[in-house]
Amino acid sequence: MGTNGSTMLEPLRQGLPPVDPTAVSGSASCALPARFEAVRGARSFTRSTLSQWGLDDRFDDVALVVSELVTNALRHALPDDTRPAVGGAGEPEAAVRLHLMRWSTRLVCAVRDPSEDRPGGSFAPERTQENCDLESGRGLFLVDSYSDSWGWHPLAGRLTGKVVWALFMLHE
Q1: pLDDT of 172 strictly over 90
Q2: Which helix or strand (DSSP H or E) is residue 152 part of?
Q3: Rounded CA gap, 153 and 115, in Å?
Q4: Closest to 83 measured CA to CA, from 97, 95, 99
Q5: Half-sphere exposure of 37 (CA within 13 A, CB side)
Q6: Which residues pair with 31 in a beta bridge?
Q7: Which of residues 168 and 16 earns the better pLDDT score?
Q8: Dihedral sign, CA of 55, 63, 42, 161?
Q9: What are phi and psi of 93, to 5 degrees?
Q10: Residue 97 has pLDDT above 80, yes or no
């Protein structure tokens, strides 16, 4: 299932400040299995990618956000027959993908999943205080706190599901 990166990123770009797609200086993605161990793999992928881009100093914040977005996708966005298992063989092809993109002044991490449901259910910035103790609200509260902005968009074209993204501004 080779995912066309530009197809996945098109709805993502609609939610960001206008940016020339040709100005992307780095892009990397990985497929994640429907297992909670995938969060560790996503963190490892993020560490090696940021290191290649010379952004080691941003790892802690970005990895926390990546962990929350991947965990949400695994916990809430997969169909019941592909819910994460602890270990196990013969799982279906990865339905969750992590994509990291770097421009000169920004970094975006995006997680694609097959659900078209709004992330976080009742999470809304104006209700953060009452939701931050709830399991489903706490993760997005952390995403909101550690990134410069975040959002989500349904996938376009033949792909079904959504992309949840977080933006980090880079100061050179």
Answers
A1: no
A2: strand 149-154
A3: 11
A4: 95
A5: 5
A6: 97
A7: 168
A8: negative
A9: -60, 145
A10: yes
